[in-house]
Amino acid sequence: MIEELKKSYNHLFEDALINEIVQVGTFKEVPAGFKMMEIGAYIKAIPLLVSGVIKILREDTNGDELLLYYLEKGDTCSMTMTCCMGQTKSEIRAVVETDAKLIMIPVQKMEQWTATYTSWRNFVFESYHNRLNEMLYAIDSIAFDNMDQRLLNYLKEKARITQSKVIENTHQEIAYDLHSSRVVISRLLKKLENFGKIKLHRNYIQIIELE
């Protein structure tokens, strides 16, 4: 665990903090599709992502989801931290997008490390800053971009985080993430295919050129 932790966080944390994380952290390997966190649940540990990708979703009153942002290697979820500090229920859903490795930190360590380690305090503030910017981007996208542009941005981001030109998501799954309908997404994907941007297959989408 310590080697993988150092690869992802050694540039952020001093040795003393790395050693404490190793002592109190719990190493977990989770498969794609696994639900890490559910809306309404209490959070008992803070995740440090060592590898893989986790998507963070919000749900409206009708039960429809909206993708807020992705967590990648070296990230943590600031909304998780907020719930931990306030001892409140989670307002997000976290689903593993690609097979992931995490180190789970006990909640009680958060305030202790914030007071003890400057690097941890900076990490927490930077996480809040990054996640806020990502949520503002999501809001701006909904408010100002049409669905054509939102879908294009979604496919680009999926290709980036998976480092693959093959998107293994159904039209319905994409519709869930973008808070749209399958019919609309299928129509727009067909439009992108006609423009030579993508190639639609039975169980996946092949990216040709999205620039």
How would you portray this structure in words?
Helix 4 (109-116) crosses helix 5 and helix 7 crosses helix 8. The mean pLDDT is 88. This protein has two domains: 2-143, Jelly Rolls; 145-207, Winged helix-like DNA-binding domain superfamily/Winged helix DNA-binding domain (Arc Repressor Mutant, subunit A, Orthogonal Bundle), CATH 1.10.10.10. Strands 1, 2, 3, 4 and 5 form a five-stranded antiparallel beta sheet that branches. The chain is built from eight helices and eight strands, in the order H-H-E-E-E-E-H-E-H-H-H-E-H-H-E-E. The N and C termini lie far apart (39 Å). By secondary structure, the protein is an alpha+beta fold.
Features:
alpha+beta, Arc Repressor Mutant, subunit A, 3-stranded antiparallel sheet, 46% helix
Q: What is CATH's topology name of the largest domain?
A: Jelly Rolls
Number of strands: 8
The major pleated sheet works out as: 5 strands, antiparallel
| Highest-level CATH class of the largest domain | Mainly Beta
Q: Which superfamily, in CATH terms, is the homologous superfamily of the largest domain? A: Jelly Rolls
Tell me the number of structural domains: 2
Report Rg.
18 Å
Distance between the termini: 39 Å
Q: Give the second-level CATH assignment, the architecture of the largest domain.
A: Sandwich
Approximate helicity band:
40-55%
Which residues form runs of ≥5 with pLDDT under 50? Answer: none
Number of helices, counting only DSSP H or I runs of 4 residues or more = 8
Strand content: 15-25%
Class from helix and strand fractions: alpha+beta
What order do the SSEs take from the amino end to the carboxyl end, as H and E?
HHEEEEHEHHHEHHEE
| Overall average residue pLDDT | 88
